[in-house]
Amino acid sequence: MAAATRGCLPLGSLLRLLGLLSAATASWDLASLRCNLGSFCECDFRPDLPGLECDLAQHLAGQHLAKALVVKSLKAFVHDPSPTKPLVLSLHGWTGTGKSYVSSLLAHYLFQGGLRSPHVHHFSPIIHFPHPSNIDRYKKDLKNWVQGNLTACGRSLFLFDEMDKLPPGLMEVLRPFLGPSWVVYGTNYRKAIFIFISNTGGEQINQVALEAWRSRRDREEISLQELEPAVSRAVLDNPHHGFWHSGIMEERLLDAVVPFLPLQRHHVRHCVLNELAQLGLEPRDEVVQAVLDSTTYFPEDEQLFSSNGCKTVASRIAFFL
Predict the structure, then answer these.
(1) Does the annotation place 296 within a ligand binding site?
(2) Buried b vs exposed e over 262-280: b needs ≥16 C-beta within 10 Å?
(3) Which of 77, 161, 165, 185 is close enough to 4 for a disulfide, judged by CB 3.0 to 4.6 Å?
(4) What pLDDT band is residue 184 in, cutting at 50, 70 and 90?
């Protein structure tokens, strides 16, 4: 991976350069050459925000706050030709509530190659950072990886999964990339997108949702103002979270804390119907009911929220077909 790229060329110079290419490189297309020569290119960044909004509306059950925050943040960022900083979103909530699903949709609707795009980078603690004793090497590798890929293409998406399982201190190396730093190696880092995913804050979100239900408030009345302080405090107080002592939250480098609410029985039903449709199957009442009845719910008295959200829906459907 090159440490730096050359500056952008005017189109005329670019065309003259194309005429000088050897037969071995004549198959390169103009877009690829632009991408390699400078950061003005968008690589395979092809945002389809209406498509994303439609997909979220149809398939993301029970998450009015997440839908609104993600769409609003992306619209403002994508439509800004000169953003002041990268877009940084932190997704929080109980398992199976849609965090990973949303991140995969972002890749699909922002980049032509989706999750397979060379400009979409997915990090998992178990795969990429399994040994805390190697933290110094991980820091160096992560910094070089992010810097190298942003040098190759400023329009890059970085997904960090299971933030509550990362080695403490690792995320410190990302802090310079998340703020309004302007140019490094001639590359505009402000057009990158960083998505962080964790379960931290899920218990606090669940408690707010439970209290709202007990007070007979509509779920859609729950506001970000009710949730954000509790989620932020849970992150800052968690020594196992990747943001621990990183300065990322203290310096307000997050553009949005995105809470995912716990799912109720009718939300799980929505997931079951979606999964059956994806399989090309007609909804059968006995299968839907069997999946719902086999799902565990909490709290013990109310049996209100699914313990695993929609995470096990696909496997349960396969069992009952």
Answers:
(1) no
(2) bbbeebbbbbbebbbeeee
(3) 185
(4) low
N- to C-terminal Cα separation, the chain:
48
Nearest-angstrom CA–CA distance, 98 and 189: 28
Residue 94 marked ligand-binding:
yes
Does 34 score more than 70 pLDDT? Answer: no
The H or E element containing residue 79 is none
Decide: helix, strand or coil at residue 110.
helix
- Distance between CA atoms of residues 112 and 116, nearest Å: 9
- The first and second tokens of residue 150, run together, are 């942003």
202 is in an annotated binding site: no
Whole-number mean pLDDT of the chain? 87
Per the structure block, which two tokens stand in for 75? 């619209």
φ, ψ of residue 242 to 5 degrees: the values are -60, -25
Answer yes or no: is 98 a known binding residue: yes
Consult the annotation and say whether 28 binds a ligand. Answer: no
Residue with tokens 């109310």: 302
